[in-house]
From TrEMBL:
Xref: SUPFAM superfamilies: UDP-Glycosyltransferase/glycogen phosphorylase (SSF53756)
GO MF entries: glycosyltransferase activity
Endpoints of the signal sequence: none
Protein name: Glycosyltransferase WbuB
Pfam family name, one: Glyco_trans_1_4
Gene3D superfamilies in the record: Glycogen Phosphorylase B
Origin superkingdom: Bacteria
Amino acid sequence: MFLVALVHKVLFGTRFVFDHHDLSPELYVTKFGRKDLFYRLLCFFERQTFRMADVSIATNETFRDIAISRGGMEPDRVVVVKSYPEASRFHRTIADPSLVVPGKRLIGYIGIMGEQDGVDSLVRALAEIVHVRKRDDIHGIIIGDGPELPRLRAMAAELGLGHVLRFSGYLSGQPLMAHLSAMDVGVIPDPPNEFNDKLSMNKVFEYMMLGLPIVQFNLRQAIRDAGNAAIVVREHSPRALADGILALVDDPQRCSEMASVGRAVAEREFRWTTEARRYLGAYRTMFRRSLDVNDQRHYPAS
């Protein structure tokens, strides 16, 4: 990105805002397990992109720290804007009747399905619950798309989950809300690693807005975002994830309390109107700094 910014800044004086949503160096390490020449190149590219940026927008405080410490940006040029859903469009509706089974609790996931997202742990956890724990009061829904979806479908079939686990594919609008509104527990199966540990995941905010108790692995930023709305599974394994899911399913009072906590935090803090003001403020900061620089050029100090 810095090469594109460089051309436009040099030739046209264009201002550049870096909306920082992904950690390419950490993602490379997670996918390939090494810090080699390509990792060092990604770090160099990231650093140059920050250097080119007039303002950087960070998705959370961890990203802001990276922009300052690793990217060398001045603190007043980094603005945190969180990706909260719009409350007027993201709320409980009438649940999809095909997902409501009397006497059964629906465990669900929403999101992208890539190798680093760990959705296979949820599939294996459901197999543990159904075939090893012999529970017939649990079924699952996985909402979303991604490169791992065909493999996950095949895995579910091999594990004999055809009658228990449904893959909806990508959904939006009213069908999405109807599916989410049928869920009793939201799962975050992303494995603990250098990449996931720093991310603010949209599904955390979405589960909390819908009043869904959460089960997740030990992810630093997700724990910070979810707070007491989540059970944190310390061991990274499908068996431990199954333990966390059943701990919630078998304790309706705890489920209700966690749901209330998550919803209360969401209603109090997850306001896109507030984030929108911060977002616009980032641009105001950039234009104000540009005007100040121009004033200094035209009216140098005596």
